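Hi R.,

Here's the chain you asked about this morning:
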Amino acid sequence: MKLLVTGGCGFIGTNFILDWLSANKGLVVNLDKLTYAGNINNLESISSNPNYHFVHGDILDRDLVKSLLLTHQPSSIVHFAAETHVDRSIHDPEAFIQTNVVGTQHLLEEARIYWEQLPESSKKSFRFIHVSTDEVYGSLAPNEPPSTETSLYAPNSPYAASKASSDHFARAYFHTYGLPVIITHCSNNFGPWQFPEKLIPLIMLHAKQGISLPIYGDGQQIRNWLYVTDHCEALRIINAKGIPGEVYNIGSRSEMTNLELVELLCGILDKLLPNSTHVPHASLITFVKDRPGHDRRYDLDSTKIYHELGWSPPTNLQERLESTVRWYLESTAWIEEIASGEYREWIEKHYKK
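And here is the predicted structure, written out as tokens:
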């Protein structure tokens, strides 16, 4: 099996490619623009693998996408490439429209042209996996049931709106042209190689340096946390057994407030770094001005993927969080590279005050 993966040098894309190749699933062509959050060094361990091929390029470049499809003849496209951070979308929504909406439409159109020229047997087995987010469903009330695949869209941030729009294009390409698209929505991912604008790696870097751990507002925003490798496993199953035109939610049973999560991380750090001068690390917690329009709660109902495809999320959140903390503590070279340039400018812009 051959895959075209977009955004494979980003956080989830990196983990997906490593997971895919470790399962000996076949050739992966990785198309990545290498923006600030895309790090080619994430995949250095497989750079000489004959089943891995990296291409530096943009999904907005239709000629390049067309060439890759015709040259490599993939049996699936797994589309991760996106601008993903809500804060950045508030400051620069245009970039999110270009990549997430226009870029996705360009990719869908080239995929359609390629797919329509395939032999019937190849057309039947082809898949376009569009990876999206729980944020398209909007904010849930405290006692409201989790979002299902049929919940109405109610995006509240420019990021969520751009992903909702890309979802609608993906759906339209299935219903209008028959392109075998599958849409997935995942909850908050965590794990290795995540750019430290996101909560967990940001807390890791700050705590290790003994600087304040910023938490938006009152810290009572509730999120559903999913270990990235579990997400990748679900995507592999969806690629193999998912039904075109369907939507699958990929969530976990790990719902907690942001404050609870940070306190849990601090407890793990206290355990792993008992001699640190920053123990207890929870003393570094600082509440900062809330994000504009900050959604209070996300939660996904993953019943459908369990009943139809047999995937369910593990329940050992504590173990996976500790494994993640260990990775960030041990990955000194990666941290040093990341904690300069773009990341340093980001921290200055958003947390200096």
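One quick note: Residues 3-191+225-253+293-315 form a domain with the Rossmann fold fold (CATH 3.40.50.720).

Cheers,
M.
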